[in-house]
């Protein structure tokens, strides 16, 4: 008997979450906290993974979504590729503040969906946390802070800061979201890809270990390859 895909492809690949655990009631797949904290020596962007200094690096997705769109569509084709690396960070799907809230929610889902998929296939996965407008990091609309669903407390997380401090509004939402993340998830280790100004991060230094990584372009210009 022939098997057909649904006429309308929702793009979420529901078969990928077979065997996953979910954060209810939203049903966001959970990236489980690891039994051991591994702090990578560097973060290499997905599109530059063949230029990674070593396989001890973490693969990160701090680039335009289109560059890693195929990972979201067909993650199974990258299992062996990513398996070369000790760690990976779940995809940094964009959460634009002016995007419809439904789009921001689905991109949180995609992040955890793909991260959970690789974790259940033996990969060490660090949840990438990204928030958009205040509805994603507060309970003003949903009963849960949706930006933090699918990531467990008291573990290791990753965030990206590139472009987050330009302008008063960007800075406000970043600081408010960071505070909400720290209060909600109480992480042990936070990997920071991009600038980490002490004026923003200093007050959290006693509550978690922060590890800062330069973005790839800055790193290459310094000759750290």
Quick recap of the structure?
By secondary structure, the chain is an alpha/beta fold. The protein is 27% helix and 14% strand. It has 7 helices and 9 strands; from the N terminus they run ββββααβαβαβαβαβα.
Characterization of the model:
With 225 residues, the chain is of the alpha/beta class. Helices cover 27% and strands 14% of the residues. It is built from seven helices and nine strands, in the order E-E-E-E-H-H-E-H-E-H-E-H-E-H-E-H. The protein has helices spanning 69-73, 79-83, 101-119, 134-137, 168-185, 198-201, 216-221; strands at residues 22-23, 28-29, 43-45, 58-60, 87-89, 124-126, 156-160, 189-193, 209-213. The strands form three sheets. It has a four-stranded parallel beta sheet with strand order 3-4-5-6, covered by helices on one side. The protein is globular and about 40 Å long. Residues 1-8 have low confidence and may be disordered.
Counting DSSP H or I runs of 4 or more residues, the number of helices is 7
Strand content: 5-15%
**Largest beta sheet, briefly?**
4 strands, parallel
The strand line-up of the biggest sheet is: 3-4-5-6
Q: Helix fraction?
A: 25-40%
Q: Distance between termini?
A: 53 Å
Q: Kindly provide the radius of gyration, computed on alpha-carbon positions and rounded to a whole number of angstroms.
A: 17 Å
Low-confidence stretches: 1-8
Secondary-structure-derived class: alpha/beta
Written as H for each helix and E for each strand, in order along the chain, the element string is EEEEHHEHEHEHEHEH
Strand element count: 9
Task: Please state the average pLDDT score.
Answer: 92
Write down the overall geometry.
globular
Indicate the multimeric state.
single chain
């Amino acid at each position: 008997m022939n098997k057909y895909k649904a006429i309308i492809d929702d793009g979420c690949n529901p078969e990928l979450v077979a065997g996953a655990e979910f954060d209810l009631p939203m049903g966001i797949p959970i990236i489980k906290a690891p039994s051991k904290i591994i702090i990578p020596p560097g973060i290499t962007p997905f599109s530059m993974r063949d230029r990674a200094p070593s396989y001890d690096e973490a693969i990160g997705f701090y680039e335009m979504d289109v560059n890693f769109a195929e990972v979201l569509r067909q993650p199974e084709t990258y299992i062996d590729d990513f398996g070369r690396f000790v760690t990976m960070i779940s995809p940094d799907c964009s959460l634009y503040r002016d995007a419809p809230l439904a789009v921001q929610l689905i991109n949180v889902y995609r992040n955890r969906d793909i991260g959970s998929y690789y974790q259940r296939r033996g990969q060490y996965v660090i949840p990438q946390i990204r928030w958009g407008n205040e509805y994603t990091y507060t309970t003003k609309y949903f009963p849960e802070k949706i930006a933090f669903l699918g990531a467990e407390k008291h573990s290791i997380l990753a965030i990206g800061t590139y472009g987050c401090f330009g302008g008063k509004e960007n800075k406000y939402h970043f600081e408010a979201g960071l505070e909400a993340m720290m209060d909600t998830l109480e992480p042990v280790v936070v990997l920071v890809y991009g600038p980490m100004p002490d004026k923003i991060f200093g007050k959290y230094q006693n509550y978690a270990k922060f590890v800062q990584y330069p973005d790839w372009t800055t790193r290459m210009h310094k000759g750290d390859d």
